[in-house]
Amino acid sequence: MPTIALRSQRVVTPEGERPATLLLENGRIASVLPYDAEVAADIMDVGAHAILPGVIDPHVHINEPGRTDWEGFDTATRAALAGGLTTLVDMPLNSAPVTTSVANLEIKRAATLGQLHCNVGFWGGVVPGNAAEIEPLIAAGVLGFKAFLTHSGIDDFPNATEVDLRRVMPVLARHGLPLLVHCELSDDNDAWKQNDHRSYANYLASRPKIWEDDAISLMIRLCEEFRCPVHIVHLSSANSLAAIAVAKAKGLPLTVETGQHYLYFSAEDIADGQTQFKCAPPIRERANNEQLWAALQAGLIDFVATDHSPAPPDLKQLESGDFTTAWGGIASLQLALPVLWTAARQRGATLKDLARWLSENPAKLAGVSHRKGRIAVGYDADLLVLDPEKTFVVQPEMIQHKHKVSPYICQELAGVVELTFLRGELVYQRPSFTHLNQGQLLIR
Q1: What is the average per-residue pLDDT within 393-412?
Q2: Once rounded to an integer, what is the mean pLDDT over residues 337-355?
Q3: Global confidence as pTM
Q4: Mean pLDDT of the chain
Q5: Stretch among 1-10, 77-86, 232-241 having the lowest mean pLDDT
Q6: Interval 261-265 mean pLDDT
């Protein structure tokens, strides 16, 4: 692979933005040079467009094999490149079979053949009865494990109990691998389904904050007992921030993500029947979400991930607007960066903040922070070039996801991804893909 020099007035490094020339050799960043450095290489000067580390999204449901009609590796990883995402970590459920054994992991890996357009790693799953599979899955290279404390929506991925977690967490602690947890301790009361099926307020009330708060309290207690790294996925309840702050102050190995949709939308914006907004935990009130923003900017919330969970339009009940039967999940993979940037820049955030929230800190969870997530010498040249000032209106035809269903349709967003590089190779130049099938499987 030839040496390439990539030059910009705005290179976003861990120290901040500065003019620089990046020398890319053998898939890595060989040098970070002054902007006007003389180099013996072809120079691509992107002017005032910003160069950032490729986005890393460790919370994606790709759904293949088994539910490829929902998404699939081809469409998901194309959408990733178009949005500047260079690494995804796929969740263990929504595919069939679920990733709860080595045999199932190998089936999933085989499904990537010929359609891996960005880097992809896998989380293993923790379900009742699979404790004996944990160490074999670790040996097979999963990046960590995911558990639900409430029904996952998929019957073949039942929720783990405290007893199940107590069997698994000492093993993960010994290996230093994270346990990702969907934190809702739910009750079995379906009385809400007898009320207005199209009412968003009714759906919101059906998944109260206390479900999250109780589950997070449980996980903090277990984290302290076992010293197993615990990661809380898609935090939506601001009521848990105080307990999280105390746990982190104690030095517990606890990390937290929230989702773009909790930071961009608020419950007050969602009209009845708009089932494209249905997710779990639900999008909460504006005052709650402003607290999430404050916690993200203060570093209490570590990063932001999409929880990309697409489904065919009929499963989203778009025509009936029925929240009681619609699939809960938001499709947003390609829009991860502009959605967050649109809301973040209104709050005075910088591109350096964006790189920390979308690249640097997610790389730590996935165990790849020694080589991905930063613009620094020796790191993989997984990069994106962004026009941070340019805006666009989301239209269905520009979406690379299999289904053009998203609450972001018709939203005006800031931040256009112009180029995406994978290990120093240009793989996307808006609006076209220049090289496909360049992704690699990530193994811990």
Answers
A1: 96
A2: 98
A3: 0.97
A4: 97
A5: 1-10
A6: 98
pLDDT at 188: 75
How crowded is residue 412: how many other Cβ atoms within 10 Å of its Cβ?
Answer: 11
Tokens of 245: 């702050």
DSSP string for residues in 249-274 = HTT--EEEEE-HHHHH--GGGPPTT-
Listed in sequence order, the residues at least 6 apart from 319 whose beta carbon sits closer than 8 Å to its beta carbon are none
Do 181 and 250 fall into the same domain? Answer: yes
Q: Measured between alpha carbons, how far is 160 from 204 in angstroms, rounded to an integer? A: 24
Contact call for residues 13 and 375 (beta carbons, < 8 A):
yes
Q: Among 326, 421, 440, which Cα is nearest to 382's?
A: 421
Q: Is pLDDT above 90 for 2? A: no
Residue 439 lies in a domain: no
Token duo for residue 371: 């080589």
Instruction: State how many domains the chain has.
Output: 2
Residue 283 belongs to a domain: yes
The answer to whether residues 307 and 259 touch, using CB atoms and an 8 Å cutoff, is yes
The string of pLDDT tens digits covering residues 122-138 is 999 999 999 999 999 99
Count CA within 13 A, CB hemisphere, residue 86. 31
The answer on pLDDT for 193 being more than 90 is: no
> In b/e form, how buried is each residue of 152-170, taking b as 16+ CB within 10 angstroms?
bebeebebbeeebbebbbe
Choose one of 318, 344, 366: the last residue of a domain.
366
Helices (H) and strands (E) in the chain, counts: 12, 18
Mean pLDDT of 44-53: 97
Reading the block at residue 159, the tokens are 């929720």
Residues 248 and 204 in one domain: yes
- 426: left (phi > 0), else alpha (psi -120 to 50), else beta? beta
Taking alpha carbons only, the member of 120, 116, 77, 123 closest to residue 99 is: 123
The range of the structural domain enclosing residue 174 comes to: 53-366
